[in-house]
Amino acid sequence: xxxxxxxxxxxxxxxxxxxxxxxxxxxxxxxxxxxxxxxxxxxxxxxxxxxxxxxxxxxxxxxxxxxxxxxxxxxxxxxxxxxxxxxxxxxxxxxxxxxxxxxxxxxxxxxxxxxxxxxxx
Length: 121
Hints:
Distance between the termini: 9 Å
Strand content: 5-15%
Number of domains: 1
Order of helices and strands: EHEHEHEHEH
Largest sheet: 5 strands, parallel
Helix content: 40-55%
CATH class: Alpha Beta
CATH topology: Rossmann fold
CATH architecture: 3-Layer(aba) Sandwich
Structural class: alpha/beta
CATH superfamily: Response regulator
Radius of gyration: 13 Å
């Protein structure tokens, strides 16, 4: 599992939720989507799914998703948008771009755990 988000606090909360759900789940995280995409392209990083924030500097989530879906060996990786937005037009756009789901970040830790549980393999 891969989590891409430029907010360090969100990364820590996400990691804590994953650790709470399963002590065996393996995950990586990046604060820079460009670096994550490069590692995936090189094959030095593999993942079963990507949780992707949309609002990031340097390369935003839309740009990452578009480039990932153009890569033959990477385009089948499920991408779950994980963002503060709840805008239905943004949801529709990312789903049409190839994201498998769109989750709005909850404010409560228990809600986050409940939201993430179905995605833990």
